[in-house]
# Entry
Amino acid sequence: MRLPSDISGKEKLLLHICCAPDASYGVPALKEFFDVTGYFFNPNIHPEEEYRKRLQATYDLQEKSYFPLIVESGKEAEWEEAVRGLEKEPERGRRCEICIRFRLLETAKKAVALGVPNFGTVLTVSPKKDASMVNRIGADIERITGVRFLAADLKKKDGYLKSVRACKELGIYRQRYCGCVFSLPAQNP
# Structure
């Protein structure tokens, strides 16, 4: 399967979407320069009800912002195995690094399968994510897969504040924690 060509002549970008709030700024900002297809792959999100809320919010955003979206599910057991032993790590710690690597590697593999030359993520909109860590991981995956990684810090130039405003304007659900069971508010008072 290959994505159809964009008539604008823009290069294709497969953009990992962790959540609709980050994508509410990231997708429109990157659509200025790329033919963006969203890729929702998040086996880390817990519990299932939260996963469904975030997926629905992403569908709501897609409907309002007009971009193609691929939803990939599964690999929860592989994700759990990847972060085993890192349960007590703080946010932005080694567990987050493994989680981000896991999801971005799957994004790059999907880009290869679709013949898309670029991949990226909206994770760097969040002030809870270390953009330099995300970009380092993306560069590593670029070397492994040959798919170009779009390094960015989308929280710059008020990206995070713009995402908050966009969610309010569009009526998009905003979550209260990163996503995995170890980042649940009850786990981290």
In short: Residues 1-5 have pLDDT under 50 and may be disordered. Strands lie at 12-16, 35-41, 69-72, 118-121, 148-149. The chain has one domain: 12-183.
